[in-house]
Request: fold
Amino acid sequence: MPANKKLAIAVPTYNRADILDFFLQTYVPVVREHDIAIYISNNGSSDNTLEVVEKWQQQYPYIVCSTFEKTVDVDENVQKALSLSEAEYTWVTGDGFEIPPKTLDMILDILPDDGTHYDFIVTDLVGRKREVEEKVFTDKTETLEKLGWIISCLGCTIFHRNAIQNGHFEKYRYTGFGHVGVVFDYITKPGFRLYWAPDAIIVSLKSPVRKPGWGSYFFVNIFETWPNVIALLPDSYSDASKTIARRALQQKTGILRWRYLLGIRAQGILDRESYKKYGEKLREVTSDLTMMYVWILTFMPKGLCAVAIKTIEWFRRKNYQIRKALNPNLMK
Reply:
């Protein structure tokens, strides 16, 4: 049988062979039921990524991989992954996220069969603060203000083929959030339809290997990269709307919660120098209690924080694995 013509999954990856292996181990049994193709763009990885892909291609026929000879910008890799797809809709996701079976079924039910289409479908990420009910967005300003911070997650957006073929990817290359720029640039066109599906939830993939996250780019992405891509959006978005979207990433994603801050201290990213550099920006979007916690963390030994975060993550993974074994459709 041919691959599913309605929906495909696109995965940009780079030097994460172990994580990609676990990703495919998790995904293949789920997508096999619907013959959904997985398109992988390998960003010139120097590890054994290709060996991992070839192993899984032998087990599932609908895995397609393209490899850059040299490493390119992450936004170009995302565009390449999307462009490989032959389906009407393509769900782009980082290899650190999991699409539970229940969520996949929800999305397949949402895809129109009456000749109409959505330009984008947006899902939720577990743990994020949901405030907007399910609806079809047709106003670009409302979409930016209410969903911009959610779309920042590479895993929450499904692209229609028209958006892939006509999106202004080059404009937002080298921004680090190119997929966000493409979405909000595209919906400046009149008549767009974006489906917000808050009950369709993706989760962090609980891989045995710890995912590096943003690493040394943590503060840069929050306080420099994200504001830069928002500022680059068309002038038809007001400065007030852009400000709402810029602050929402820091205020609503949970990225400045105690556990994440503990983790970046363990990596040495949070220290007295970074506190001095970004302290005022942190103060704009966090409480006094959080600021006190951050300040205290800068005096705590990195090694102690690393032990604490590894212990917390071990218990979280084990708890999730047990609950998922009892309930395969678990999303929270």
In short: Strands lie at 7-13, 37-42, 63-67, 89-92, 97-98, 120-125, 135-137, 157-160, 194-204. The chain has two domains: 7-211, 256-327. The first strand starts at residue 7 and ends at 13.
